[in-house]
Specification:
Blueprint lengths: L3 H15 L4 H11 L1 H13 L1 H5 L17 H22 L2 H18 L11 H20 L7 H23 L2 H7 L4 H5 L1 H19 L4 H6 L3 H8 L14 H28 L1
Amino acid sequence: MSWVNTAFPFFAAYWFVNQRIDVPLIIGTLFFLIPYNFLMYGINDVFDYESDMRNPRKGGIEGALLDPKLHKLTIWSSIGLSLGFVIYLLAIGSDSADFWLLITLFAVLAYSVPKLRFKEIPFLDSLTSAMHFIGPMLFALALSGVDIFEFKLFSMILAFLGWGMASHAFGAVQDVRADREAGIKSVATAIGARNTVRFAFLLYFLAGISIMNAGPHGMVAALAAIPYLVIIAPFLNITDEDCERANRGWRKFIWLNFAGGALISLLLINYIQAL
């Protein structure tokens, strides 16, 4: 379901700016819907196999457990499926668009592959994860010639980034004990379950404040932060010993992120259209 949250930001940004259906829109949307996610989740499932085996949550909606026999096929097929799309998108883009596409793809790879493993570098793990979802939108905006650093628009982008970082950080809380036992580092293992929940709470709050800088559109979008704050509040005093109970909140996030991400994307793009 989260696959839509990578394709939709690209589609909405490109469509509302350009007001037309053309080849770049179709190719880009297809890329961020299927090959991009296959690359992102496929590589992650391959290189996380050992730790995923020890995680009881894996094997369902919260993550796949990939058979080792499929690892090599998964890596090569995900690269092969993406290659043609990437070459085309780089060829049609400006230097700015190519930069954001390459940064987005680097974030996908660096999150999971050995030697880099940004997912095991506290705080950088949350930042990289957020880029997976905001990157397609940044690429679409640059491809359409929009000034990403215009103040109000940039405030909304920062809010979107904070929302993504907060969601990742809170998601890591439930795995604190399992990750420590497996020797896996994360923002949650570094600062503890309680501090991570409070960090996520602060990010959601600041995201709501940041997006208010965008005027009427931002004031409406800021309301999207409220359900997150309400859901996360009961876990503000969680301990490492009972970190697993954060899963109750996270399971609500799975559905809320889908709706919240779509709402924020629509409001952001609606603002872009008015520029």
